[in-house]
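Sanity check

After download, print the first record. It should look like this:
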Amino acid sequence: MSRVLPCGKNANWIDDDPDMFSTLCTICADTSAMASDLKPSTAPSGQKYYELAFDVVLLFGLTELKAQIRWMEKVIYDDLADD
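Expected structure tokens:
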């Protein structure tokens, strides 16, 4: 899995002026260990696909930029009401 992190100069939104943005870096991660936990979904066309929701976390240091990805695994929601 990889994601491109764009960088813009003198532009507000990439949707408004994509030519003002260049690639700052590409964030790559091996997510193959998660493959067994993914559940198949079906598109309206009938084609199966798998979806992985994740966030890109940027860590700004004094002299460097670090990037991480994060996701939630095996989440159990407890819907207990206070009585």
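If your output differs, re-run the checksum step. Summary of this record's structure: Residues 6 and 23 are 5 Å apart (CA to CA).
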